[in-house]
């Protein structure tokens, strides 16, 4: 099975070359820092690995941080900026993690290649490495992003919400040039990580103000969630988004959605729409077999597309000296 995974990696690289014409969307390119900072990707990788070895839960944090960055003003590192009105202080971003990993990598890169590697690229590379470290796929990340000079909490209203209908999710992804398949595939990132009871408890006790639970929840799983998140319990208590293999990047998340074991309403709704249901079924059909690898391959493709959303290149933006503040 490991050999099958390894066979898919070169395919992903070939796919990237065809997708980007060998140079990348805009001025993004695989190996952008090959001459200007040859150790850039190795430094980011070793930094992520060091933090992961201390706390494996940092992986979903970094993946989510990159996703939230790209969905607001594009992949430009704007989510990393501190300040009362900055993007990272918007309500949907208050639980984001992984800032210290990006800062750590930036400090090391500034010591060897000052003013060369953008914070946006560090984040894109760190997200890839975070997936790889949790037994997920790896892919060649096109780099060359520049850091944005604007960070506003108002923009975070565009982020997908746990209560979004499929129609709303579809529109939010389409606005970024992402398809239904990208939507389902990228939501598959929920195969790792946790969420707060606060974000789904309404499904357990008073769904749509009926006083009842969401009928799409599997009954045995409902009891499990109610034990974990009592009606008047601590809303900040965390629950795994994939009940079966929460620390491993695999396709079991889709099996859970198929079986009514999705934690977030927005996740479970993927089974209720004809178009997204077909994609979920394809990934869920054989979690440990070839279809699991199909998810790995598709996830790599969709992450490359996500990472190219509204990027700043060339003379746009800047290369920050410190990721949390503009130059």
What's this model, at a glance?
The protein has 327 residues and is mainly α. It has 13 helices and four strands.
Provide the fold topology:
Blueprint: H1 2-20, E1 29-30, H2 40-54, H3 58-71, H4 99-112, H5 119-133, E2 142-143, H6 166-174, H7 180-187, E3 194-196, H8 202-205, H9 219-228, E4 238-240, H10 252-258, H11 265-268, H12 274-284, H13 290-306
Antiparallel strand pairs: 1-2, 3-4
β-strand percent reads: under 5%
The major beta sheet can be summarized as: 2 strands, antiparallel
Radius of gyration: 19 Å
Q: H/E order of the elements? A: HEHHHHEHHEHHEHHHH
Global geometry: globular
Query: How many E-type strands?
Result: 4
Regarding quaternary structure, what we see is: single chain
Which strand order do you get reading across the main beta sheet? 1-2
Question: Helicity range of the residues?
Answer: 40-55%
Distance between the termini: 48 Å
Site (Transition state stabilizer): 64
Family: Belongs to the peroxidase family. Classical plant (class III) peroxidase subfamily. Belongs to the peroxidase family. Ascorbate peroxidase subfamily.
GO biological process, one term: response to oxidative stress
Protein name: Peroxidase
